[in-house]
Amino acid sequence: MLEALGIQEPAEAVYRLLLERPGCGAKELADGLGRPEPEVREALDRLAELKLVRVDDTSGTAEPLTPDVGFSFLLSRAEAELGRSRRRFEQAGRAVAGILASYGAQPAAGVRHDLVDRITGLDTVRERLEDLAANARTECLSLLAGGAQPPDTMDASRPLDQLALERGVRIRSIYQESFRNDPPTVEYVRWYRDLGGEARTVPVVPLLMVIVDREAALVPVDPRDGRAGALEVRSPGLIHALVVLFERLWESATPFGEAPRRDAHDLSPQERELLLLLGIGCTDDVAARRLGISLRTVRRMSSDLMNRLGARSRFEAGVRAAKEGWL
Fold it and tell me: What is the CATH number of the domain that holds 147?
């Protein structure tokens, strides 16, 4: 259960028993667990390395340290690693989108052209998306960039989502966290979830994307310009890369209906993302666009974070947060 924190099953079993019997040595713990003594000694070394136990070099006995301190550190470290992984996959997603755009414009010699098709015109893209959704058999995965979703898009999606869910298609969608500020989008997501759909949120969605049955995907030709059209991808290798991107984001996302979990420094995922943007010198305008929130909200959040960090500027707040181990 604690593998995500770097604690494998043998070490977890030793730690739990040590909480019940503090002051035991490796032999007593091995007898109590019915495990080989060398395995228990290795587990104790790992727990000591993680600052969860203290082993007396003279007597060989072990004492558990205060759990809240050790686990707060481990949780904070795990969340930081999740954040780094998410940012790496966001970068990978943007890189894949760029590769797809180049590939769609000028297919390489000797490569099947039907693996990537370019679709031009917003109406044509929407029609193709509706056609894919209407024929989905098992699964639909969506990344929905931006906060509020266009009303006409939600109206068109309702019957398709309902029919798909009634057919037993599993639908999972990742929204940008700022969509919570738009009541019509919140109402739509609540309706969709009540029918059996699944929805989660992240502070930043790297690109718009829909994957159907892990066989076809639609991505924008240019993530910065929706009017440029879309690419329909059917290459198994590219589809696999896009599915991995989705799954990594899904793991770190917040389920709809739950408040975003704050870390050991009382930072929400959105506040962490803002600090990262400030730390690399982004202006308030750029941060607001990236997070899909208003300039006023960014300024309020920045001011609060500056006060908490004792910083005199937004850039200093980002740098100080990194130095203090907040990021």
Answer: 3.30.870.10
pLDDT tens for each residue of 83-98 = 666 666 666 666 666 6
Q: How many CB atoms lie within 10 A of CB 324?
A: 11
The whole-angstrom distance between residue 211's C-alpha and the CA centroid of its chain comes to 17
Phi, psi dihedrals of residue 172, rounded to the nearest 5°:
-125, 135
pLDDT of residue 172: 94
Note down the domain range covering 290: 269-323
Please tell me the predicted confidence (pLDDT) of residue 110.
43
| pLDDT interval class at 266 (50, 70, 90) | confident
| Window from 105-119, 151-165, 182-196, 311-325 with minimum mean pLDDT | 105-119
Q: Are residues 119 and 246 in the same domain?
A: yes
Helices (H), the chain: 9-20, 26-33, 37-49, 67-105, 122-134, 151-166, 183-194, 236-252, 269-279, 284-291, 295-309, 314-323
The residues, ordered by sequence, that sit 6+ positions from 138 with a Cβ below 8 Å of its Cβ are 168, 169, 170, 213
Q: Does a structural domain hold residue 301?
A: yes
